[in-house]
Design a protein that fits this description.
CATH topology: Ribulose 1,5 Bisphosphate Carboxylase/Oxygenase
Order of helices and strands: HEHEEEHHE
Mean pLDDT: 93
CATH class: Alpha Beta
Keywords: Plasmid
Number of helices: 4
CATH architecture: 2-Layer Sandwich
Largest sheet: 5 strands, antiparallel
Number of strands: 5
Length: about 110
């Protein structure tokens, strides 16, 4: 899995997003990213099977930017460990509803706080 995760990080470094599924792999990749200093800048969650409906699950999406109205999200993004905890929470909440999910992930090493 490590080789696959390295290829995914290369895609992220090129400014692309990666698809990750199932949720168990998302949880593993999330921890791998955090161990390498990456934080999730944007996450889109799509239910691909099961549950009451399929399709984009907007209530689990995450977007971090430095603009007004996103202060908390930006602070989460600036700390890879906090970002990992946030994504773990999102994946677990989605999974608790049942079904299978696909995650579209954009991540990068956050800028230095200081």
């Amino acid at each position: 899995m490590r080789d696959e995760f390295e290829k995914m990080l290369e895609q992220l470094e090129a400014g692309k997003f990666v698809y990750v599924e199932p949720s168990s792999v998302m949880l593993e990749f999330n921890e791998y990213m955090a161990s390498r200093g990456y934080s999730v800048a944007r996450l889109e969650v799509v239910r691909v099977q099961g549950g009451s409906r399929t399709g984009r699950t907007f209530e689990y999406d995450f977007l971090a930017n430095a603009g007004p109205g996103y202060e908390e999200e930006w602070q989460i993004f600036l700390d890879p460990q906090r970002s990992a905890a946030n994504i773990r929470d999102i994946v677990r909440r989605a999974s608790s509803e049942g079904g299978e999910y696909q995650y579209l992930v954009w991540a990068e090493v956050p800028p230095s706080k200081g």
